[in-house]
């Protein structure tokens, strides 16, 4: 007759197959035929979302769009780069790090893209790199071996093996019975521990299911197409050659002495860096901003409003230092407030428009080159006019065009960011599997408790217990007693042995005292799993039966002599 596999084994096998299939689909690396690429992040280009040592798992996609975080192979750096797509043009992708103010110099094709972000594990890269350490790998291999050995050991301590050990324990009398009790108690403890773990896992998967189906898969998020504006200022003048200016030429960075420099040329170069820009045009105007410590201010236009096209232009003006010095001296005389530190600034007002990534662009930029003026010198970069424009020889401003976007909801579970769709899948599957395992373990624990009393009886009274294969009543009506202790007292008082019959439903203990049969039973729960469906018939040991017959004969002879 073909033996059916145990239900518990079938369920566990199916669970392992399901989990293994899911793990292969979602986590198998490309090196072994899977679709997952593992990227360990370095640097600060994607902060604050990514930091050095994080692990990103990317999957190939049928379509990549602007705004997605994608990994690609850089032909320039010969490394894998994980940045965000900011533009797509002519089959090539433009990338930029979230924390960078510049675009990636490489524009990869579709074939160079490895996949878009699927799972982000904070700090996971450090653990993955640790696996390459030979010592760590050896330790993990040793732990895996111990687990496998432990699994084999647990299997050997299954219900069938325990039943066999119980038979052997009876045959080996009290010492072996005590050892069997200890083994059973250990098995019961292991089952209770596994039951607690399985129950906790069931609750966690239930919570994951509730969270997954009560939270939306995405939420509105702010996203923008970034752009950067740059302005580089410069100044120069022709001056008398001498000890201060030997070449007769003053250039950017040199000190400006007002007694030697009367006209100063100010130049600026503007450019905009933006992805997928179209039809850029705008206006620019340069003005002189003057202010004194008394609170006096004046704005003088140096150029009219002028148009420009494209993403850059160059402009310049002449600054008459003699006139500026004369005007500030007149202000001091009129106000009566002397000053040796007036502020002078050349400020550009720039407006630019067009389209970026199909969106309308309208931006303003007001860079300025500030000076501090005293009686003898014009000091670049050490003063200000109180205006809101950025100051310096090299001025940069960043901005972005907001666009509607959605962001996937993610739940951080022990440092692993899981998306809502993933929770909706893993939650119910994990809940069903762990619930089945919990029910199986609970049934084993309940049955183990019933066998526990039988084990205790054998451990305490094994020296006067004889197993039999006859019926549970020995042919006489039985008188039930309340406890095994009372039955043992009857046996000792009458000089009888306790006869033990192990049935499918109960363990029956009997004492035959001059025709009266006294009985105590331990009821066993009915479980029809593979391991418990076989009959549990136990054969009496021949030596034990011989000793029992001898004892009964002695008792009978003694009774006859008394009569």
Short précis:
By secondary structure, the protein is of the alpha+beta class. Among the domains are: 36-130, Ribbon (Umud Fragment, subunit A); 226-406, Immunoglobulin-like (Sandwich); 456-562, no CATH class. Helices cover 35% and strands 34% of the residues.
Verbal overview:
- By secondary structure, the protein is an alpha+beta fold.
- Among the domains are: 36-130, Umud Fragment, subunit A (Ribbon); 226-406, Immunoglobulin-like (Sandwich); 456-562, no CATH class.
- Helix content is 35%, strand content 34%.
- The protein has 9 helices and 26 strands.
- It has helices at residues 7-27, 124-130, 134-156, 159-171, 173-214, 321-335, 420-461, 484-494, 542-562, and strands at residues 37-40, 55-59, 69-74, 79-89, 92-96, 113-121, 218-238, 249-250, 256-257, 263-273, 277-291, 297-301, 306-309, 312-320, 342-356, 359-365, 368-373, 377-380, 394-408, 410-413, 416-419, 465-467, 478-480, 498-502, 506-513, 516-523.
- The strands form 4 sheets. Strands 1, 2, 3, 4, 5, 6, 20 and 21 form an 8-stranded antiparallel β-sheet that branches. Strands 9, 11, 12, 13, 15, 16, 17 and 18 form an 8-stranded antiparallel β-sheet that branches. Strands 7, 8, 10, 14 and 19 form a 5-stranded antiparallel β-sheet that branches.
- Strand 4 (79-89) and strand 5 form a beta hairpin.
- Helix 4 packs antiparallel against helix 5 (173-214).
- The longest helix has 42 residues, at 173-214.
- The chain starts with 6 loop residues before the first helix and ends with a helix.
């Amino acid at each position: 007759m073909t033996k059916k596999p145990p239900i518990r084994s079938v369920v566990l096998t199916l669970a392992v197959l399901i989990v293994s299939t899911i793990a292969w689909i979602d986590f198998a690396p490309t090196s072994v035929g899977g679709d997952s690429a593992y990227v360990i992040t370095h640097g600060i280009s994607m902060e604050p979302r990514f930091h050095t040592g994080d692990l990103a798992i990317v999957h190939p996609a049928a379509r990549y769009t602007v705004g997605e975080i994608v990994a690609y192979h850089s032909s320039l750096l010969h490394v894998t780069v994980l940045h965000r797509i900011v533009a797509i043009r002519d089959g090539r992708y433009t990338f930029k790090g979230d924390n960078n103010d510049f675009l990636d110099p490489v524009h990869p094709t579709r074939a160079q893209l490895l996949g878009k972000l699927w799972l982000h594990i904070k700090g996971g890269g450090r653990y993955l790199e640790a696996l390459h350490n030979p010592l760590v790998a050896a330790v993990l291999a040793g732990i895996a071996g111990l687990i496998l050995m432990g699994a084999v050991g647990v299997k050997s301590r299954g219900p069938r093996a325990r039943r066999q050990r119980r038979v052997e324990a009876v045959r080996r009398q009290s010492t072996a019975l005590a050892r069997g009790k200890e083994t059973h108690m250990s098995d019961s403890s292991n089952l209770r521990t596994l039951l607690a773990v399985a129950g906790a896992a069931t609750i966690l998967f239930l919570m994951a299911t509730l969270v997954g189906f009560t939270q939306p898969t995405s939420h509105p998020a702010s996203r923008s197409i970034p752009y950067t504006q740059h302005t580089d200022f410069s100044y120069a003048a022709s001056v008398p050659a001498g000890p201060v200016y030997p070449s007769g030429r003053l250039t950017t960075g040199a000190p400006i002495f007002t007694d030697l420099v009367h006209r100063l040329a100010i130049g600026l170069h503007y450019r905009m860096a933006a992805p997928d820009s179209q039809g850029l045009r705008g206006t620019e105007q340069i003005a002189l901003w003057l202010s004194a410590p008394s609170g006096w201010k004046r704005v003088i236009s140096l150029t009219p409003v002028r148009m420009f096209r494209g993403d850059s232009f160059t402009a310049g003006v002449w600054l008459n230092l003699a006139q500026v010095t004369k005007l500030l001296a007149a202000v001091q005389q009129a106000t009566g407030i002397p000053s040796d530190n007036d502020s002078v600034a050349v400020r550009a007002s720039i407006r630019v428009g067009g389209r970026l990534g199909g969106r309308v662009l309208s931006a303003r930029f007001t860079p300025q080159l500030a000076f501090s003026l005293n009686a003898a010198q014009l000091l670049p970069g050490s003063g200000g006019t109180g205006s809101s424009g950025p100051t310096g020889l090299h001025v940069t401003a960043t901005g972005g065009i907001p666009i509607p976007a959605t962001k996937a909801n993610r739940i951080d579970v022990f440092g692993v960011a899981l998306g809502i769709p993933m929770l909706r899948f893993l939650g119910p599957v994990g809940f069903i599997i762990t619930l089945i395992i919990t029910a199986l373990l609970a049934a084993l624990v309940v049955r183990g408790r019933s066998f526990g009393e039988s084990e205790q009886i054998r451990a305490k009274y094994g020296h006067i217990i004889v197993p039999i294969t006859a019926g549970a009543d020995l042919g006489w009506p039985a008188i039930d007693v309340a406890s095994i202790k009372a039955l043992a007292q009857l046996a000792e008082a009458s000089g009888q042995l306790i006869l033990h019959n192990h049935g499918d439903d109960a363990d029956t203990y009997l004492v035959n005292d001059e025709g009266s049969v006294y009985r105590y039973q331990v009821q066993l729960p009915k479980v029809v799993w593979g391991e418990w469906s076989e009959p549990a018939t136990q054969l009496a040991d021949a030596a034990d039966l011989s000793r029992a017959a001898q004892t009964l004969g002695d008792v009978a002879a003694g009774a006859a002599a008394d009569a």
